[in-house]
Amino acid sequence: MAERDELEARCDALEETVAHHQQTIEELNETITAQWREIDALKRHFARLGERLQEVEEASGAGAVPSEKPPHY
User: Which regions form coiled coils (predicted)?
Assistant: First the structure.
């Protein structure tokens, strides 16, 4: 009977461990999903800023200015 009790205790411990792992996986998945949404929003924002910068450069004629370092560098 002691062997059966030991097996039941081991099974209970394994079930508890699996439950904790499942919870951790769900939390990690939620975190990754939130980060993906934030990265996607930042990419879109960055693209819009790049477009606006290009429009400003074209409107001001800054696109014609060379982007070389001055000779004193």
Answer: 4-59
